[in-house]
Amino acid sequence: MAFTMNNKDFNKVLDQLQKEYKVYAPVNLKGKGTFSDTDTVRYGQVNIVEEIEFNKKSNFSPKEVILPITQTLFYFTENSVKEPKVEDKKILIFLRSCDIHAVKRIDEIYLRNGFQDSYYKTLRDKVKFVLMECEHSFENCFCVSMNSNKTEEYSLFVKYKDDRVFVECKDAEFKGYFNYMEQCNVEPKFVESNDVEVKIPENIDQSIFKNEMWKEYSERCIACGRCNVVCGTCTCFTMQDIFYKDNRNVGERRRVWASCQVDGFTDVAGGGSFRKEKGERMRFKVMHKVYDFKKRFGYHMCVGCGRCDDACPEYISFSSCLNKLNNAVEEVK
C-alpha cells in the first residue's frame, strides 16, 4: 500500500513513531566539513522530514548506527563484570539501496561467520529500514556493477518532493500510522547506470598477489584509514580497556573501529608486522572485498557506494584499482 500526505502530516507520523523508535537519517551538518565553511552529510537522529538530506550522498555510512564507532562491551571492578543496559527503543534508519546491501555484508561477518556477536545482534534485531531512492547516480558510485543498485529489503519507502511525502508501506507493523492518509501509487526509482563501471575478474590466480600493480599504492597511500572509516562494509575493530582515574581497578572494555590501512594494524608480539608496506595493505583490502569474502559467502563484499573514493585525500580510486586488477588478471591469462 502507498500513501501521500503533506510534510506536516508526515511529521506527525514521525512524532508518533518516535515513541517506539529512534529515527536516524542522513542530515546536512553546516560548517562541519573537512575544510573551512564546508558542510558534511552524516547520520543523526531526526524529528521532522525537513531535517533529512534526500538529495546528497552521505559522507559516512549508516553503519555507525548499528555498529558504533566506540561501544562499551562491559564494565568491570575488582570482583565483578556488568554489561551496559540496552535501550528499549527500536531503530528506524533512512538509507539507500547500496547501504541496505552493505548491512547484509556486516550481518555475514557478525552473525553468520562461524559465531554470532551478541552485542551486534542486540542492536541489529531492533533495526528496520526506510528506503531512500536514487533517481540518478552520485559521483564515484558503481553500485550497478556490484548489483547493489536495487533492493526489496525495506519496511517503508519514503519520497519527499515539493512539500509532499509519498510512502510505500511494505511492513504491516507501520500501516496503522497511515490509516487516514490519502492512498496513491508510488514505487522507488533505482539507478540503472553509473558513470563509473567496474569489471571484477573471475578465477583469480594466486600470482596476482605478487603483481607489480600494488607497488603504486606504497607511493601514493598515506595510511590515514579514511577509506575504512567511511566504508559501509568494513568491520574490523580493536579493543580498549579504559581505567578510571579515581580507582585504577575499575573501568570498562570498549570495542573501537580499526583500519587495515593504518600503521600498526598488523603488528604482533616480538615486533613483527604482516603488512608494513602500504601497497600490501591496499592489496589486502581489495582482495578481501572482491575475492576472500566471495569465496566464503558467494558474493562480493564491496557494494560500490564510492565513499572511499570520495574520502581519499590522495585521490586513490578503489573502482580504478578494481579495473587495474581485472587488466592484470587478463594479462596473466
UniProtKB/TrEMBL annotation:
Indicate yes or no for the key word Metal-binding: yes
Is Nucleotide-binding given among the entry's keywords? no
Q: Which terms are listed as keywords in the entry?
A: Iron, Iron-sulfur, Metal-binding
From which domain of life does this come? Bacteria
Please list the GO terms describing molecular function: iron-sulfur cluster binding; metal ion binding
Q: Tell me which residues make up the 4Fe-4S ferredoxin-type domain.
A: 211-242, 293-321
What residue ranges are annotated as transmembrane? none
PANTHER family named among the record's database cross-references: ANAEROBIC SULFITE REDUCTASE SUBUNIT A
Spell out the protein name for this chain: Anaerobic sulfite reductase subunit A
This protein's species is Clostridium muellerianum
Q: Which taxonomic lineage does the organism of this UniProt entry have?
A: Bacteria, Bacillati, Bacillota, Clostridia, Eubacteriales
